[in-house]
Amino acid sequence: MAVTHTWSIDYNLKTKTQDKHDDIVYSVIWKLVSEKSVKDSEGISRVYSTASSNEIILNTSNINSESFISFSDLTEDKVLEWAKLKINLNAEEGTGVTCSELEAGHERNIEKQINPPTKNLAAPWTPTEVIS
After folding, report:
1. DSSP state of 42
2. What are the residue boundaries of the structural domains of the chain, listed by start?
3. Which is higher by pLDDT, 92 or 40?
């Protein structure tokens, strides 16, 4: 099964008044949760997951009055679109990674959970061979 990525925006949006518009959203906290369900050798499904979140300052320097969306008409999808755009723009400017790179990093983390690259061994003087 493939890794499922779910992006969301925290309910608390930071706003300001700018260019004669009230409640301009200028800062949000985005969250990315990625998970993969895998059946083990006994047929039991196990879910492996990882999550990231961060606050991001949105670009409010060029507000177009014709395409302006009032605060009461905002949707999570629209604000998430703005956040992802800003994440990718920051990456282009060399201050972060793209949304795709965040998702790929989550996929690598999950694969390491499923197939750990390291293991813990008990010291030779203990009766147990492997510490789980």
Report:
1. T
2. 4-59+69-114
3. 92
